């Protein structure tokens, strides 16, 4: 387990348990390479972010769970836009509430991938540009 930082009773971690949590919650396989960063409370992963499909200028982001805090969200943006140097982050989700969250972070809906998560399970594509990131 790699602890990234602690925030009161929450621990921000990056480990295989986060990837397993995300795979269960997102109901699809996660194939390396990826970075999985999660929120742990009382030894349990309660939320996480998966970053994969890195192309240099873009990386895909999926999220599940709870426990989101401003410092956690800010750290994801700092990693993507600062450390990796991406110009955009692409959110791929079937959840309208995740679309709304991505829009609050500066994202814009760019399209829909039909049957992306299986028959009748479509995915919204939301792009968040570095210049529009609200953190």
CATH class: Alpha Beta
The CATH architecture: 3-Layer(aba) Sandwich
CATH topology: Aminopeptidase
Total individual domains: 1
Strand order of the largest sheet: 1-2-3-4-5-6-8-7
Largest beta-sheet details:
8 strands, mixed
Q: Which stretches are low in confidence, meaning pLDDT under 50 for 5 or more residues running?
A: 1-6
Find the CATH superfamily.
Gcn5-related N-acetyltransferase (GNAT)
State the secondary-structure class. alpha+beta
| Quantity of strands, as a count | 8
Give the helices and strands as they follow along the chain.
Answer: EEHEEEHEHEE
Shape descriptor: globular
Helix content: 25-40%
Tally of DSSP helical segments:
3
Strand residue content:
35-45%
**pLDDT averaged over residues:** 89
Rg, nearest Å: 14 Å
InterPro entries: Acyl_CoA_acyltransferase
Protein name: N-acetyltransferase domain-containing protein
């Amino acid at each position: 387990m790699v602890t990234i930082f602690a925030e009161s009773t929450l621990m921000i971690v990056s480990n295989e348990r986060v990837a397993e949590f995300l795979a269960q919650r997102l109901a699809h396989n996660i194939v390396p390479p990826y970075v999985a960063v999660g929120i742990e409370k009382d030894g349990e992963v309660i939320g996480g972010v998966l970053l994969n499909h890195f192309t240099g200028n873009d990386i895909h982001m999926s999220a599940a769970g709870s426990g989101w805090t401003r410092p956690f969200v800010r750290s994801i943006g700092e990693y993507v836009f600062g450390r990796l140097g991406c110009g955009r982050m692409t959110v791929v989700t079937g959840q309208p509430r995740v679309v709304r969250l991505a829009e609050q972070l500066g994202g814009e809906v760019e399209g829909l991938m039909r049957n992306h998560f299986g028959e009748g399970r479509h995915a919204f594509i939301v792009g968040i540009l570095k210049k529009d990131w609200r953190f």
